[in-house]
Design goal:
The protein is an alpha+beta fold and 145 residues long. The chain has helices at residues 43-56, 105-111; strands spanning 2-5, 40-41, 64-71, 77-84, 92-96, 99-103, 115-120, 125-130, 143-144. 14% of the residues lie in helices and 32% in strands.
Length: 145
């Protein structure tokens, strides 16, 4: 199931669809190496994260994008996405082409195996959570169960 979360970004021409990035073994924790156990990020999403971090003044060496799951929303759970200046002590930290993704342990239970993509069309633009753990989502696309 594919869920959509929209984050306001500057207008840029749409890029062709790309395959998910598969991080090399030294880029992710050993527990996340198994297929379907980690998090994937597409090249389009990496570029949008990188440009957003630059606009927000977040250092790529220390900071990154925090993905999470919060209680609430139409379907029971909702996605959380924001920039953070550094990982927390128990976070899983993934690195894709110099962009770091932070996921807290509780959110990882719901996000393992998902792919983060970025979509830009005439109708909408934003990050898509392609989450195999999601059994249903609401019409707005930002909550799931």
């Amino acid at each position: 199931m594919q869920d959509v979360v929209t984050i306001q970004t500057a207008n840029q021409p749409a890029q062709p669809t790309a395959l998910p990035v598969t991080p090399t073994p030294n880029q992710i924790p050993s527990a996340a190496k198994a297929p379907g156990k980690g998090i994937e990020v597409t090249p389009r999403a990496i570029e949008k994260i990188r440009s957003g971090m630059a606009k927000e003044g977040v250092s790529p060496e220390e900071g990154g994008l925090r993905l999470g799951v919060l209680g609430g929303g139409c379907s029971g759970l909702s996605y959380s996405i924001r920039f953070d200046t550094r990982p927390r002590e128990r976070d899983r930290v993934y690195e894709f082409d110099g962009v770091r993704i932070f996921v807290d342990p509780k959110s990882f239970l719901y996000l393992h195996g998902m792919t983060l993509d970025y979509e830009q069309t005439l109708m909408r633009q934003g990050f898509n959570f392609i989450n195999p753990n999601s059994t249903r989502s609401c019409g707005c696309g930002s909550s799931f169960s």
